[in-house]
Amino acid sequence: MSILPVVAIVGRPNVGKSTLFNRLAGKKLALVDDLPGVTRDRREGEGRLFDLDFRIVDTAGFEEADPDTLPGRMRAQTEAALGEADVVLFLIDARAGVTPLDKTIAQWLRVQPRPVILVANKVEGRATSEAGLSESYELGLDEPVAFSAEHGEGMVELYDALRPYIDAFVEARQIEAAEDAEGEDSADGPLKLAIIGRPNAGKSTLINQLLGQERLITGPEAGITRDSISIDWEWQGRAVRLIDTAGLRRKAKVTEKLEKLSAADTRRAVDFAEVVVLLLDATLGLEAQDLRIADMALTEGRAFIIALNKWDVAHDQSRLFQGVQAALEEGLAQIKGVPLLTVSGKTGKGLDTLMKVAFEAREKWSRRVGTSTLNRWFEKAIDKNPPPAPGGRRIKLRYITQAKTRPPTFIVFGNRLDELPESYRRYLVNALRTGLDFDGVPIRLNLRSRTNPFDR
């Protein structure tokens, strides 16, 4: 787990919190748009300001709302982020000046047991922001840091304001951090597990059930999650990094800019993950879009699991399971043996099995087979089904080696391999899966022929 201090960014909607988050993270992790309320769940990342390192947390815009509404649930996430923070950056819009909501947030922050740094954002035009800077003293939170998250102005001033708190944290945790580092198993890092699927499949609900808390905003509204949210967690003493993602619809249906950004963010999350769980809504069954999403994850070479969610409310379960299984065998012909599990994000059914299978999938995905073992298998596979002889000329397969893992990648050496039919390549891949226990894992097989110096 991280021993870095946690810096949370809070403020009302559309004051530039996500822009500041991206500035401190050094990359565009959070979605940014002129539309208020883009951020909904709190998002975490590694932040750096000159020589200061910390965990940075982006939060939703703070609004007065009923707890049962979506804005109310977003506010609860902001309050939870504050509870975990070591320092709070309270952002206001210097061009707009101090609003009644800013005063409400300031009053709330003043009674919290956390140091608060007031940051007056959007000061790139000093003439238009000077009045807002003067008004900010009314909030009773010391001198504001004049800042422009968009243009990076005021970085030195923000550094000077943050440094005393970061130094105090580092000094207090130095001994504890050393002890934690000794206890970590560096050979086995956290399982990076991404949950993907169509909108409203129950991804956030399932992660909340795993965590045992309402960490992510959920509700009947489709498309609540927009950013890919990464959360560090432990399952039976083993480190896990859970990644919640935005629901993926068919490209033809995606017209809004935000949804396009969310879809791209989900694809980046798949690139980052080791194991990907495709969550299906058992009440809707398998659709063509699910197969497209599965193909995306497999193309990226991730270890792959399919889980039927909402199993507690599914009808005719046996027939449904068999139907989905048959459709997957036909629709995902490029990979055999993908685990198909039944779970319920609402009740927690099957989640321990899901985690167990996820760790097993990563182990297969990361496994390396010795060259001697691999070639003994290779000889048997060729004897059982020799390669064809197009035009009466034999294709010679000499030996095989594993070039890399994650995903398992193999290279076959031989002669005239450019004439080897695709069907025989598929035979070798399927034989690898069954013969060397790579079921459900994407396998890449490359062919390499010896160069003939007399070809010219």
Automatic annotation (TrEMBL):
Entry keyword Repeat: yes
Sorted UniProt keywords: GTP-binding, Nucleotide-binding, Repeat, Ribosome biogenesis
Binding site for GTP 1: 11-18, 58-62, 121-124
Residue ranges occupied by any EngA-type G domain in the UniProt entry: 5-170, 191-366
Superkingdom of the organism of origin: Bacteria
GO biological process: ribosome biogenesis
GO MF entry, a single one: GTP binding
Self-association and partners: Associates with the 50S ribosomal subunit.
Free-text function comment from the UniProt entry: GTPase that plays an essential role in the late steps of ribosome biogenesis.
Family: Belongs to the TRAFAC class TrmE-Era-EngA-EngB-Septin-like GTPase superfamily. EngA (Der) GTPase family.
Protein name: GTPase Der
Source organism of the structure: Tardibacter chloracetimidivorans
Taxonomic path: Bacteria, Pseudomonadati, Pseudomonadota, Alphaproteobacteria, Sphingomonadales
